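From the pipeline queue, job 12 of 40. The input is one protein chain; the requested action is below.

Action: predict structure.
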Amino acid sequence: MKQAKYEPFGEAVNVSDRMQSQSHTSKLLTRIGAAVFWLLAGTIVIARGVYFEPGIFDAFGRVIAYVQKLAQFS
């Protein structure tokens, strides 16, 4: 894909300068933000696992057990 040479407002853009201008701090903040996001996502998954209500799928478990019993008699 061809690099844009002008901003939407018509000012010239030097793509190589723009890529090099991203500071170390910006890269660090990006990594910290991604780490915080995945930490929160993992925490939500673990919390849902801990507080999961096992009674919700009891009927489904009974159906599976019934199908397994039928499979044993076949």
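Job complete. The chain has one domain: 15-73.
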